[in-house]
Write a structure and sequence with these properties.
This protein is an alpha/beta fold. Among the domains are: about 100 residues, Alpha-helical ferredoxin (Fumarate Reductase Iron-sulfur Protein, Chain B, domain 2); about 110 residues, Rossmann fold (3-Layer(aba) Sandwich). The chain is about 50% helix and about 10% strand. The chain has 24 helices and nine strands. The strands form two sheets. A five-stranded mixed sheet has the order 1-3-2-4-5. Helix 1 packs across helix 6 and helix 3 packs across helix 6. The radius of gyration is 21 Å and the shape is globular. The termini are far apart. The relative contact order is 0.10.
């Protein structure tokens, strides 16, 4: 693709990077074939090729984004299926991530949309605030009429499990012959909605011989980053890099069990490429970031199966952030098979479920269409349980499917001596209850 940046613009390292990405695009359109929003709307500007043209104009023009441009870019899920498909290696992720802060700064959205995004950026990454909001939601918000834009958030809060306020201890010693130590990023929303996932992860790692230090007071920065609040995201990333580098010498890995966080963490070196003060810390940390399935698939890490349920058919769903963002898709299936489960590959597994971080709160109509399509395909696959590597996918799919949804790590924990996941113990009525019956 031909670009027209001025020499002054190309003095900006970010625009230099964008220019190099844009020039790799050859307009082939292969990306549109795997873009979920293009498949729904059929609008060229709702596909990666059209969005690349919009981003090119936005970056070259140095002006305010129109509501039309902001709308098409906001409808992007950042599922990254286009990057897996692209034969030219266009790094669409880094391109759309440059556009989002410019839309925020140039007020290309109406004020209700800006207010809604600002609220999410201030709430979701902060566990204490989010837990407080959950308490308010249970006792107050459900009785108050809310603006249309906030209703998806209320529905989300109503699906929180009853033990959402139970925190993890800071340190968990190995329960098998000790092999080393790891850190576990507990997550933001996951500490409130997915405590069972974190507990299963700790047990599995302990059983594999690892001490686990739990990182509870840090957000990876993905929520602010994808909302376009770049200064907040970079501040979170710098803080994490500084703090975590202090413990990096004793950790064999920093484990992530929310795949969206993992994609963000593995991109830290690029995100801080213009910050020489953090370069050394990031260079030490990035090789340590591992998805839990990626880490357990390494030689000798998976504890032996002791109680694998015979005949349970698992539909293994690879989240976009794991499949496309981290290029980790086969390990979860292999681990489940090693532990005796019958594994069914999820049909149409390249297509996003519509969760995509805060997407189902910001674009509820498109998210619902994607969620219903995904759930229908999974329900028809002939399995007993849906296993995923991301809490957001589990919750989104659960809005439209009655099949139990569990994290892959919960099944591995169960098969190697841990408790049966409550979603399976309760049959088809799971704690991630449907909100759109």
């Amino acid at each position: 693709m031909q670009t027209h940046f001025t020499p002054a613009q190309l003095a900006d390292p970010d625009l230099q990077s964008a220019d190099a990405i844009l020039r790799r695009c050859v307009h082939c359109g292969f990306c549109n074939a795997t873009c979920p929003t293009y498949q729904i709307t059929g609008d060229e500007l709702d596909g990666p090729r059209g969005r690349i043209y919009l981003i090119k104009g936005l970056l070259e023009g140095d002006g305010a984004a129109s509501n039309k441009v902001a709308g098409h870019l906001d409808r992007c899920l950042s599922c990254l299926a286009c990057m897996t498909t692209c034969p030219s290696g266009v790094n669409y992720m880094h391109l759309i991530d440059q556009a989002r802060p410019r839309i925020v700064n140039h007020a290309g959205r109406d004020w209700p949309a800006r207010w809604q995004r600002g609220l999410l950026a201030r709430l979701l990454p902060h566990v204490a605030r989010f837990r407080l909001l959950l308490v308010i939601a249970r006792h107050v918000i459900k009785y108050i009429p809310l603006p249309l834009r906030l209703r998806p958030l209320r529905e989300l809060l109503q699906t929180a499990p009853p033990d959402a306020a139970t925190p993890l201890a800071a340190h968990h010693p190995a329960t098998a012959p000790r092999r080393g130590a790891v850190a576990l990023l507990a997550g933001c929303v996951q500490q409130v909605f997915g405590s069972e996932i974190n507990l299963a992860t700790v047990r599995l790692l302990n059983r594999a011989g690892y001490d686990v230090d739990v990182i509870k007071d840090a957000c990876c920065g993905a929520i602010a980053h994808h909302l376009g609040h770049e200064s907040n995201a970079l501040a979170q990333i710098r803080t994490n890099a500084t703090r975590w580098s202090e413990g990096a010498g004793r950790w064999q890995a920093i484990i992530v069990n929310a795949s969206g966080c993992g994609t963000m963490l593995k991109d830290y070196a690029y995100l801080l490429r213009n910050d020489p003060g953090c370069a050394a810390a990031v260079a030490t940390l990035v090789p340590l970031f591992k998805d839990i399935s990626e880490f357990m698939a390494m030689d000798g890490n998976l504890p032996p199966a002791t109680a694998a349920p015979a005949g349970l058919r698992i539909i293994s769903q690879a989240p976009c952030s794991l499949r496309h963002g981290q290029l980790v898709s086969e390990q979860p299936r292999q681990l489940l098979q090693e532990h005796g489960f019958i594994v069914i590959a999820a049909p149409n597994d390249n297509t996003c479920c519509g969760s995509a971080g805060t997407y189902n709160l910001l674009q509820p109509e498109l998210a619902e269409t994607l969620g219903r399509n995904k759930a229908a395909a999974l329900d028809a696959a002939g399995g007993d349980v849906i296993a995923s590597g991301n809490l957001g996918c589990m919750m989104q799919i659960g809005r439209f499917s009655n099949l139990p949804r569990v994290h892959t790590v919960q099944l591995l924990d169960w098969a190697s001596g841990g408790p049966r996941p409550s979603a399976i113990a309760n049959g088809r009525q799971t704690r991630y209850s449907r909100v759109n019956d």
